[in-house]
Write a structure and sequence with these properties.
- The complex is a heterodimer of chains A (988) and B (303).
- With 988 residues, chain A is an alpha/beta fold.
- Chain A contains 35 helices and 26 strands.
- The longest helix of chain A is centred in the first third of the chain and has 35 residues, at 113-147.
- Chain A is globular and about 90 Å long.
- The N and C termini of chain A lie far apart (61 Å).
- Chain B has 303 residues and is of the alpha/beta class.
- Chain B has 12 helices and 9 strands.
- Chain B has a 7-stranded mixed beta sheet. A two-stranded antiparallel sheet of chain B has the order 3-4.
- Chain B is globular, with a radius of gyration of 20 Å.
- Chain B starts with 5 loop residues before the first strand and ends in a 6-residue tail after the last helix.
- Classes of the chains: A alpha/beta (988), B alpha/beta (303).
Amino acid sequence: MNPKTTGMIANSLANIVLKFMAAYFSNVKSKQAYLKTVDGWMDFAIGLTTEDGAVKQSIRFKNGKGSVKGSIDNVDTLLTLQDTSVLAQLATLPPNEVLNLMLKNKMSSSGSMAYLEFFNLLLSVMMKDKQIKQMKAQKAEREAFGKTMSDEKVPEGPRPRKQFLKASEVDAGVHCLQDDPYLSTYAIEDFPRLREYLNYHHTGTPEVCTERAALLTDFFRANGFETKNDGTPWIPEVRQGKAFRYLMENRKPIIRKGNLIAGTTTTKTVGVPIYPDAIGIIFWGELLTVQDRMLNAYGPLSDEEIYKINNDIFPYWVHRNFREYVREKYDEPVCQQLDERWAAIFMWKNVALSHTILDYPKLLKKGLSGIIDEIKQELIDDTEAPQSKVDFLNSMIDCYEGVIAYARNLAAQAQKEADAETNPARKAELQVIADAVKHSPEFPARNLDEAVNAVWIHWVSVHMESTNAGFSLGRMDQWLQPYFEADMAKLTDKAERDAYIKHALELIGCFYINCQDHLPLTPDIGNYLFGGSSSDQAITLGGITPDGEDAVNDMTYVFLKVTEMLSMRDPNINARYNSEKNSMTYLKRLCEVNVNTTSTPSIHNDTVVMASLKEHHYDQRDLNDWSATGCVEPTISGKHLGHTNCMMFSMVAPFEMAMFNGYHPLMRWQLGPKTGEPEDFKSFDDFFKAYTVQLGLMADLACEYNNYLGEAHAVIRPTPLMSAMLDGCIKKGIDCTKGGAKYNSSGTACIGLADVVDSLMAIKTLVFDKQVYTLREMFDAVKNNFEGQEVMRQRILTEVPRFGSDSDEAVTVANRVTKFTRDHFWSHLNYRGGHYTTGWWSMSNHVAFGTLAGALPSGRLASLPFTPGLTPEANASKSLLDNIKDVTKLDPENMNNNIAFNVKVNPSPKDSHEQTVDQLCSYAKAYSSLGGMQMQFNVVSSETMRAAMANPDAYRDLMVRISGYNAYFVTLNKELQLELIRRADFGM
Amino acid sequence: MKTPLVLEIKCNSLDDGPGIRSVVFFKGCPLSCIWCHNPESKRVPTEISFDEQSCIGCGTCTKFCTQGALNIQNRYYIDREKCNLCFKCVEHCPAKAITRVGVEMTHEEILKKVLADKPFYDISGGGVTLSGGEATLCTEWVGRLAQMLHENGVKVLVETCGFFNYELAAEHLLPYVDGIFCDIKIYDREKHKKYCGVYNDRILENFRRMYDDREKYGYSIMPRVPLIPDITDTDENLTAIAEYMQLVGVEKTDLLPYNPTWYSKNDKLGVQLSGELEKLTGWQSKEKTEHARQIFLSRNIKC
């Protein structure tokens, strides 16, 4: 059949399908109901076309009636399909596969994503049964594939108790745990309460919670969003302050069953809060099917919840979110289009501006009332404050009064439950909670229970204000130590002191568990882009004090013990190891916890991280007080809005554009300038130059979009609560989204470094040095995924010195690439007046970006994952030491948003626990003495991972380090699982 | 001075002595144990190896072979009768499926390679292990290497079968060695001859002398017993070895449970295995290893 005929048939087919859909929702009352919101009918139009223009159809809904037109003019969202074959797939695939079509650039969308998601819901209303059937088939297929990975039998009975070493020395800062700082006598078996929570954590199903979104939507609908009811415009900060207060006053006060801490993030046991002001709407299309999706399913939503979200909440936010704000104000700029093609950048700024660490010591020392006093004092002191500052400071007071109201409700609830409780032990616990929360967070904390409750209640509050993505807790061991020590000082009897240590472990254990009472709302596409991630609430331990002294203390070891016992993916534990000040006793304990948990904590070489931040010119005391945010990124605690994960940036997409003269093959887009045909490059430097031009363009676009989105945050969701806890905002009277914090920056994560360096080395070695191939021959082979060119590919694999093979040449190229990238990002100022920083970690986007890239001159075939973080490619060397040597030779100044260096080690079963720990310790120590920045061990064998694919239920708690964050292996998509198995496996 | 060929320098080894180590494997061994785990290390001269798994079947090698020694019909691909070891095919194989086994390296080249990992030895208490084949085969040359490593502050461990000229070793090698692993495989001299190719008188004598001289030269020494099913792991043999160790004064030994992973290596070298080896394809059972341990423990030898 000739293409023209095919096109015509496809066009009529699309017309028929859309007409059917229009009739379905116009005529069937129960279906039409989906279109009727509390504010009236959803009126919108979706266009459908193909790249060749053969198909041009649109479906329009107005006043509850659908119609179809043979044109794509004036639509809200336009879907462009690569060709007519995609059309057939579109009609038959389940919703996650439809998203995959978009992910793989077989289909692109322009215009409102909100209407697209609503359109997806309508499709799901029509096709629900079929979709669920397909999803079940996908699940069965996954199970069947898993079974092929291993035939290992799952051992029966409870697992043996883990082994624990006893500390051989006591650090100077350890004052209460002198007997054994490692706390080796405790294990999870001694804490039935934590054991039970942990079981639920691994087996319970999270549920979507509408509380936050519903209360806020109610407030704004009653009081206006852009303008007040009297028609005057709202000042965004003032509006958010009032709305937040309303939310906090009306939230349900809950004390989780058996818990030692008051307050919950949602009304569900494990809840998924919705942030429709951010990216919540992307979930619209899955409302009916989320319980059946293959990966990370949520519990089914009730009819009432579906109605609330579909007909009430989401319609209100169609235009009131960051993404659509930018689209409407800047007319869908190229930078936004680029983000929505997935292959080159992923902007976390669409989701959140959360990656930061607040001033918790201030909260503990002053209490909420003290913070309000500080704000009021500023209003008195600054007699010349502009009205904007007065308004802003008052919005902060609104926020804090809201938190106080919530805390008082919690205290009352705890008292009520204490009074009603009949079990005396639990009654006493509830009374402790009630007493603690009556006092703190409102007033300064006086003991560890008050301090932990105060931090938690504030933590919950922060997540009510903005998205649960990467907010981090900072140096909890430092900040809680005074309370622990004071409590212990009151006890003289050994039995009492031992009991209190156990209480402290259980209290911090509850805190960890509570940090997992909420999960980010992950649309199914997210399971492929950043699989298995929770919200990455980083806690940082150890290092040095602001004065520069050894900071390791009792609470450092308490946190490490809890980390070891619970082995949870989140909070994400980061340990600062300062080789000048911290002891080997501490480092050894970090390694032991890593062995026992398989993947945490990640270890940061303190002095090198600080050296990487030189050009920020932070005050020395502030710099000494840094802690990790999200995955690994350095933030100045309590003083710094460094949105350290504003974007994930593919290093490979511009490389492909440099190979193909500015054209990106998968996106089918001549996006970059024409930097040359292969013959135009006379030297390696010529080609390198072309790469930097394309890279520069992509970085410019990404920064441009980030700045637009930053502006959107300031308008849609400024954060007065967060601002009051970031040094600088109160004095300046400026919200942190607008640059109020003392320090400002934006952090990037650049992905695929090893792939780019190895590709450059292949070009350098085989094209320019040895002249075995011409550049065109090589790029042609790459274009054809090396088909018929296996000899070339083998020569690349065996003859080219790779990054991670102890190759000074490759390291030189790597430093050249990182320096250019860092300098280019640094040259941009963000919308808050801060610099862009450059990080080399990847979450799991190395898999997603890899899926969306063709073959590379490195010999990597099309669609395979890139290497994670800046970990060398698996075949670079047989020796881990070569990997370590090359990674440590990278210049830290080019890595000022940190790195993630993954090392998978596989302990020999014949080694004792202590030998294994000592070996890990040797690697960590050597790595840091050579100047390495950060490293994270995966102490798990390929066999175990294969067995987990075959028997996922038996391995629900198997934790792995992806790149900067932890995840449970069985929750990952298949590609990521296979990537982890493929990663270099260094036997120990 | 006789110069040995180097098979491989394996970095980041955790199994060949304390800490993180580099292991230099030399080619050639005076013994010819039928279960040898490194069959490529048995013979002294250079060999050629073919790895079927890596071969992409591009046929490049055949274009460079002047002897007609390469044939896909041949189970081992390379006809070693015809091959004149010109290594042209090795040079041109894009996948490195055909490789040269054994290369000459100078002391300086070896030193450069292993000193690159010195920070790891220092922190972990590791160093360099000289192994084989038989590390002492070119005693003077290897002794000189040990001396140079010593001068560079690297701890040296030697793995040996014990079959060497003691006087030569005492003069050139032992003063520069920090540790020795010496295998005691079979006590009965006839059986030793049958399975290892030589009588064991010299081995037992050398071990005793090394043990006695340990303080003089300042090394530690550990005897190791490979547990080969039905050959070395018989009660009779292990009892005899344990009694011998008692006489020498040994307090601790290492038992090495058998592992069959070496089996497929022979194909690469074109070596046909004899029928007697058929039963050696399984793994050592935990029970048998434990039984062996008890024989030594009951004679106050830790293991």
